[in-house]
């Protein structure tokens, strides 16, 4: 087979533009998830996922924050850490970083060239190990966008000679391309019904997919779960002879305070082998959930690195920042963005928002298709005086008209329950994302009301780009 010659990429943006030509990860079908295909392309690249010890994080919500906290503490320990998270908010490079910093541009470019050459080589179907990519049946075909992006991360990590890998799953766990890592510790955050078309229609089915990241004989750190999920995780861990470290049995959060500046709390441990004295910890992001995320990160890091001391943990958590997790964009009339897109995460977000700014503010909401809009609308509508429904950008499939209809029904219920129309929120439908954002930014200033933008990381990114 004649080898093609390509001009080298000149910028990281060219690499991501090339990657975007592949199957959109938001429109893939369940048959697109093929672990053996990811194994094959990783083998062809010389298994870069094994370049350093890894910590693997899955879950329905909070996994990005937990991954970021782990990364911050690893950096505070002096370990060069390659981080992989999704989605990005403003720049594709946010997905692949050293610590929380972009890599040197040269690394993105060189790894991109290696990836493209590898992808081209995989088209040589004369090699038996590559025939899986020929697409001769529905279960085969070329690598997907997320498979190639994940391999790109591992190539970048190998090029920077990192000491550790902090890896967030994209979706699920068992079939996720990131699951080729041989993690020293796995972490699973809270489980909710999500991506049901891929992960299953029950909590047990979703938990089963997440449990797929548990590695034989390696510890798994687990957030508090509902009974059916916890039972599934205990069973899986026992079958794999993996020590299960369940947060409520390991540590306790006390003296929790949340302010606009962040979250402060005391973390004390119930079992030996962790920190002997209670630790006073701070995270710069407001929200009680961030204390839980930090507790998961602390247990994980102490398990992976028993020499970790309390001062380093404190310093690493204090330095942690992440976009679109209750991020304040404007001070005078506050504008908060949060990527919450599940029932529980929206509830936690609204609780934090109303605790800090009261009820009666303004909401701009948009979410992708397939989300539980009814549950989110029931939580959101009573807390705001004006609600704007819009499209969460163009990256994900959305049905803003249906979402607006759900909110209309919820507003009507509020009117009927209150018996006075003026107590119900005003609802506006502005499907054009940019127009909706400009409207709420202008009107909130006029009314002197705080704004919450939520429902999607992609909507959060659009708001962030306009404030």
Q: Give the quaternary arrangement of the chains.
A: single chain
CATH superfamily of the largest domain: Mur-like, catalytic domain
Instruction: Tell me the structural class.
Output: alpha/beta
Number of strands: 17
Report the β-strand fraction as a percent range.
Answer: 15-25%
- Strand numbers in spatial order across the main sheet: 4-3-2-5-1-6-7-8
**CATH third-level topology of the largest domain:** UDP-N-acetylmuramoyl-L-alanine:D-glutamate ligase
Roughly what is the average pLDDT, rounded to an integer? 91
Kindly report how far apart the N and C termini lie. 52 Å
Largest sheet: 8 strands, mixed
| Name of the CATH architecture of the largest domain | 3-Layer(aba) Sandwich
Number of alpha- plus pi-helical segments: 16
Number of domains: 2
Query: Which regions contain 5 or more consecutive residues with pLDDT less than 50?
Result: none
| Rg for CA atoms | 23 Å
Q: How helix-rich are the residues, as a percent range? A: 25-40%
């Amino acid at each position: 087979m004649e080898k093609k010659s390509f001009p080298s990429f000149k910028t990281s943006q060219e690499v991501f533009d090339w990657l975007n030509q592949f199957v959109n990860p938001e429109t893939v079908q369940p048959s697109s998830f093929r672990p053996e295909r990811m194994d094959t392309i990783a083998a062809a690249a010389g298994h870069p996922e094994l370049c350093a010890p890894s910590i693997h994080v899955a879950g329905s919500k909070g996994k990005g924050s937990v991954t970021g906290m782990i990364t911050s503490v690893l950096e505070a320990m002096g370990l060069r850490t390659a981080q992989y998270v999704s989605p990005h908010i403003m720049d594709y490079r946010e997905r692949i970083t050293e610590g929380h910093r972009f890599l040197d541009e040269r690394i993105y470019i060189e790894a991109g060239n290696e990836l493209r050459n590898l992808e081209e080589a995989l088209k040589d179907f004369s090699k038996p190990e590559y025939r899986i990519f020929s697409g001769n049946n529905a279960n085969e075909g070329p690598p997907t966008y997320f498979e190639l992006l994940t391999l790109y991360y591992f190539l970048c990590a190998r090029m920077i000679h990192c000491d550790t890998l902090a890896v967030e799953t994209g979706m699920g766990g068992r079939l996720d391309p990131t699951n080729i890592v041989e993690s020293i510790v796995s972490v699973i955050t809270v489980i909710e019904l999500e991506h049901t078309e891929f992960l299953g229609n029950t909590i047990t089915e979703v938990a089963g997919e997440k449990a797929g990241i548990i590695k034989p004989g390696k510890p798994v750190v687990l957030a508090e779960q509902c009974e059916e999920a916890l039972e599934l995780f205990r069973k899986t861990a026992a079958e794999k002879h993996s020590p299960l470290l369940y947060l409520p049995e390991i540590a306790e959060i006390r003296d929790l305070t949340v302010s606009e500046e962040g979250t402060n709390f005391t973390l004390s441990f119930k079992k030996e082998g962790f920190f002997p004295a209670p630790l006073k910890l701070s995270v710069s992001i407001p929200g009680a959930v961030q204390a839980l995320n930090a507790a998961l990160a602390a247990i994980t890091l102490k398990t992976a690195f028993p020499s970790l001391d309390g001062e380093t943990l404190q310093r690493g958590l204090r330095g942690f920042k992440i976009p679109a997790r209750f991020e304040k964009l404007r001070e005078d009339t506050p504008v908060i963005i949060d990527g919450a897109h599940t029932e529980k995460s929206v509830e936690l977000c609204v609780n934090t928002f109303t605790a800090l700014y009261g009820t009666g503010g303004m909401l701009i909401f948009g979410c992708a298709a397939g989300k539980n809009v009814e549950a989110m609308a029931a939580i959101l509508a009573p807390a705001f005086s004006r609600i704007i429904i819009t499209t969460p950008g163009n990256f994900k499939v959305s049905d803003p008209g249906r979402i607006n209809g759900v909110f209309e029904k919820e507003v009507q219920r509020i009117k009927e329950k209150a018996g006075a129309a003026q107590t119900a929120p005003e609802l506006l439908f502005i499907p054009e994302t940019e127009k909706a954002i400009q409207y709420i930014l202008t009107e909130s200033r006029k009314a002197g009301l705080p704004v919450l933008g939520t429902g999607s990381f992609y909507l959060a990114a659009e708001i962030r780009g306009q404030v």
